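Protocol step 4 of 6: structure prediction from sequence.
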Amino acid sequence: MMYDIITIGAGIAGSSFASKVSKFSKTLLIEAQDYDAGIPVRTNIFAEHNKPYIDDIYWNDEEIFPRPFLQLNYKSEQHDGLLSSKEFGPPLGKISKTEIFIEKLIDTFKDNGGITKFNEKIVRVNRHHDYVELINVKGEFYKTKLLVLATGSRGFELQKSLGFNTPDSYSGVYTNIWADENLLHDNFSFQYMFHFNPKISLNGPFFFNVGKERISTGYLGNKENPNELKDKLERILNNYQKIKPFIKGLKWDKKNFVTGDISKHPIKSFANDRVLILGEAAGLVTSFFYEGILCGLLSADVAVKTIQPLFEKASDYTRFELNKYDQEVKRILLDGYFRNGDACEYLFYSGESHSKTLWISYTDLLNNNKIVRKYVYEAHTVQDLSNYDTDRDRWVGEKLFGALPTLSKLTLWPKFLKAMMK
């Protein structure tokens, strides 16, 4: 059978893309995990800026999004850097039961006539002039006019075999903990915590995503092996005094700790003849905050809008035609919004002593400067990312530099100057 489109990967990017593109094309969705047995449980933060890329039927579904995102905590060792949406307006976004979201996207895909193949491993891809051929571990073949890779950090061998670069990849670990709603209410005033501590990782945060009757926690960014990652998370949960008030009464099982790679830093090109790359597989994850959901949803939406007119004219899906996808992702996302994350990565992931001082100063600034809080709030709620105001990020950077101790100013001013140029 020849498909119009085959998508490999049924995470946020792949399932969102498949549900939309299946409205007008014969589509196959392939996923290496056994989704028939169950989609992995995940509790995520969906900032309000995700809303333009999610159909209202899902965004307004309380089974998917049972809790508003009202307050965040950018926490340092000295400060709880709190921002409440109530100070400025509507919520910062929503908290998801992500597996339910993916399940409903896939249900829509099936209702549109889409076909799924779960627990299916593709080991080779051959690109021909007029179609792409996929081969699974059993030697079975699938053919398609267009291949879309949404494999996160799990399909790099296929990606490289098709001539694409791969993003930089880092390790992480997380777990979902089930908890009584009253306990969560007592322990947490916020729904999201981003805690940067160089002793945990020089490359990423320790986090809490507080959902309804459950919470996700873990850390990102190191190169430890899976057992080391799990051991370290267990030590943090057992011994780290800074988070003790939050986890009082919570119980976890190390057997439920999940490890995996997280990739960032966009690759050079996301399109080639008859192939597109979505989301994390393309490195579309913000470099400091590791925000990948927005990038997955946005890239899926842009891909559908690029493909539909090509489909209607029976395109050959050449690299030249698909290059519009590259251009739009870069225009909307990379040319503006990503600069903040790039600058923060350069500043904060810069060595243990400087990073600690910078993060403490930033969290203190967030508490004491209303304009800084307002700009962070608006970064979460902005609906038109293509017109994101990077001058505000520069202004916050200047205020952060001004809040540093004198000796740190002398040491760090060249880094700030370079960060402002990103």
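Step 5 (inspection) to follow. The first strand starts at residue 2 and ends at 8.
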